[in-house]
Each structure stands twice: as C-alpha cells, then as structure tokens.
Specification:
Length: 339
C-alpha cells in the first residue's frame, strides 16, 4: 500500500524531478509562470482526467452491506495537439526564440532543440541576459504518452439501492514528499422506480464522484540552482457526474455512461533560488535571488462517454473500459465483489 501511495503522490512532481534542467525556466523572470504552464499543462490536465475514471464497472448497485474492493489503473492519453506548444514572442515580455523550433515539446512530448533568450531591463539602459535550453519531454518514456493514475477503492451498498465508494490514501510523510488523497463517489440505481422493469438485466444509475489530492515534493536534492527551502506544492480537485447503464449477465457485464468531468489544480514552486545572468553593460555575471517564483492554475473540463466490459468469475471480476473526452482514457483492473 505504501508503495502505491508514493507512486500516486509523486507522479506529477516527479516529472519536475526527472528533468533537472527544468528549474532553468525560472530565469524567464516575470514570464516564468507562463513558460512553466505551457510546458506542464498536459500532465496536470491528464491527472485531472484520469482521476475521474475507474469509479464503477456496472450501473447495478450492491445489496445492503454488500461490498467490493477494486484495484484500478486509469491512463489519460495526451493528444498530439497537447504534446507541443507554439512559442510566440508576443506572449512574453522578455523572451525570444534564439534558435531551434518554435513548436516546443511539452513535458509529455519528445526532445527539444529550442533555445529561448532572456533579456530583462536592468537599469541605465543595460539588460540582464540569459539563455534557456528547453528541457526535453518524457512522453516517449510513458506508454501511449499517457498519464497514469493507479487507485485502490472500496464500495459498500447502503439503503435505497445506493453504493458509496471511497478512495482513501493516508497521509504520507517522507524525506522527499508528503501528501494525501481522498475521494468519494455515490451511485444510485434508478431501476427501482420503474416497477417490473427492475427484473430485466438492464440497470440505469446516476453517479457523482469527487477526488482531492495534495502533495509537496522536496526539490532541494534535484535542483541545479542554489537556494533554500526549495519545494513543489501540488493540489488537485476532480469532479465527475455521469449517467450509467449496464446489461448484467452471469458471465459478462456490458456498461457505458455519458457525463461531464471537471478538474482544477495548482502547482507552486516555493523557496529561494539563485539565478545567474550576464550584465550587458559590464559583461559580468550577476546573481539574483527569487522567492516563491511560480504559482500556476490549471483547469480541465468537458463531456465524456464510456464503454466497457467486465468478466464475472464468481466474486472475482476483471474489467476494462475506454472513455472519449479531451484526453481519452483507458481504465482496467480487478475487483473482489460480494453481494
């Protein structure tokens, strides 16, 4: 369990840790947040979309006090259009493209050959200048260029043909990371209101789910910049509302849904960082210290549609589904279900 918790909580922040050159983006000054945001958006939005999946494998609910334990992994496939971003100098105050491709690879893209020039007014007509070699993406290291979210979930049947599902990962505190995750979902079967139709293998339900995740990651050991108290702080809230239908047979269950996903997240780079520039007046190196330089907000939302199947082998279930949305997702897992 501890390893699973650490995997989930470090997933987003480890992208920063793997690319030790990522902190050079801080040299962009007041443009750093926008440059960071353009680079990091796919993984942040991918996490929002993947955490809204894997909640159910049927519209049918448990009997009272029936329950299941599910181990699931959902992967949000980053579309090609989100694996790069177009660098446009007019969007920034102090940046220009010195060399390389203006179509820059994001964190979920490939290798970059782009060098960004920084030219910030420094008084007396002088400028402080620097170069930023854009860090490579790691999309090629991830199967399907996807952002995965593994999850352990428990559901229990309560009165009124309703299931309550919980995703609870206890607070983790290590030398490098601390954080926690909590999610709750509610599924209500509507067939009870349709009289004799509730004898059919068809089930229709409404589902609503919410997941929140917070984490901080110690950057002190991976940053290439001198400074103190360097860390990345991440918070995500994901919401989904869906109408679910399933055909429930002894060996196989076919299910599908339509609905709406919403996610918002923040990523902050905190602490002090020593940045080196060249003074154009004296042609000497100057060092400036910045504190808490990055504060980014990300939002992802849109309609969704899911199709999936579950194989029922007694109390043991195997399932998979595919969801169409801005970042299409694939979910698969196993479940142990009783009553």
């Amino acid at each position: 369990m501890k390893k699973l918790v650490l995997l989930i909580l470090t997933l987003v922040l480890s992208y920063s840790a793997k690319s030790q050159d990522l902190d050079v983006l801080l040299k962009a000054g007041d443009d750093a947040s926008l440059l960071f945001q353009n680079y990091m958006t796919p993984v942040m939005n991918g996490m929002s979309y993947s955490l809204n999946d894997g909640w159910y494998t049927a519209a049918k609910t448990h009997k009272k006090l029936g329950f299941d334990l599910t181990i699931n992994i959902s992967t949000a496939i980053v579309p090609k259009s989100s694996r790069t971003f177009q660098f446009t100098a007019a969007d920034y105050q102090y940046l220009n493209l010195e060399s390389g491709n203006s179509e820059i690879q994001t964190v979920m893209g490939g290798n970059n050959n782009s060098t960004i020039g920084v030219r910030i007014p420094y008084g007396n007509g002088n400028y402080k200048v620097a170069e930023i070699n854009m860090p490579d993406g790691i999309g090629g290291d991830m199967p399907l260029n996807a952002v995965p979210s593994p999850m352990i979930q428990a559901s229990v049947g309560v009165p009124f043909s309703t299931d309550i599902s919980l995703r609870i990962l206890p607070k983790i505190n290590t030398n490098d990371i601390d954080g926690s995750l909590f999610g709750i979902g509610i599924k209500h079967n509507l067939m009870q209101y349709f009289g004799p139709l509730d004898k059919l293998p068809l089930n229709i339900a409404l589902f609503a789910g919410y997941t929140t995740m917070t984490s901080t990651y110690n950057l002190q050991n991976v940053s290439s910049l001198a400074g103190n108290n360097q860390e990345a702080a991440f918070k995500l809230n994901a919401y989904t509302v869906q109408a679910v239908a399933s055909l429930d047979f002894p060996i196989i269950t076919l299910f599908g849904s339509v609905g709406f996903d919403k996610g918002n997240s923040t990523l902050k780079i905190k602490g002090t960082y020593e940045l080196e520039y060249t003074d154009t007046g004296s042609n000497t190196t100057i060092t400036e210290s910045v504190t808490d330089p990055i504060n980014m907000d990300f939002n992802a939302n849109g309609l969704r549609g899911t199709l999936g199947a579950r194989f029922n082998l007694g109390f043991f279930k195997i399932y998979g589904d595919y969801t169409l949305k801005e970042y299409n997702t694939i979910s698969a897992g196993i479940s142990f279900s009783f009553r």
